[in-house]
Amino acid sequence: MTEKAMTSQAKQMHPTKVIKLWWKELYDPVSEIPMPGSRATLARLRHCKRIFDVVIDPAFADLAQKCGVKFDHNHDLNRVALVMAVMSYVRSDIPDKKNARIIGPTKQVSEDEASDALCKPLRFRQLLGASTVDECYRAFRQLVNLMGRAVNVDDLVNSLWNWPRFPGAEKTADKIRIEWVYNYWSTDSENASGNKTS
Prior knowledge:
Blueprint: H1 3-10, H2 15-26, H3 39-46, H4 51-55, H5 58-67, H6 74-87, E1 92-93, H7 99-103, H8 121-129, H9 133-146, E2 150-151, H10 153-162, H11 170-185, H12 188-194
Helix pairs in contact: 2-5, 2-6, 2-10, 5-6, 6-9, 6-10
């Protein structure tokens, strides 16, 4: 897709969809190796220590413009930077399960017994407590690395967009956290038994 085509198409799409397209264009779809032109961008983004470092990267202004985000919409600019920064760590898309289910315990147990969870309950609680964009960046960057850089891209992008507790967006932030808690503790066997008819 040409840059001009992506920009005109982006005007009709939610920024999260534009960011997903941006991410897909960074990697070869077969080998999952970064495309030659995207390696420098990915390297710069991975070296960012905080969201402001992402905002001053040349790739950010380009993506924010493609997303249709205006420069007087500070919260949306921070959202684009957050998603962009975390997605620079993602290598592959595994769309079958929600990310919280992937990192949660495999069987229904108490919090003290959740030793088989990829993300232990204490770390999960820290993820839930991340509120600012910098806290979210650190927590989700660690999570992506913990998951071996293979995530459900749709779920991650949508979650990142709604995770920060910006003024006026607290209900949305709480809603996404509740969804993650539910998926984290919902075991596959529980979901399967819940779908059976009696």
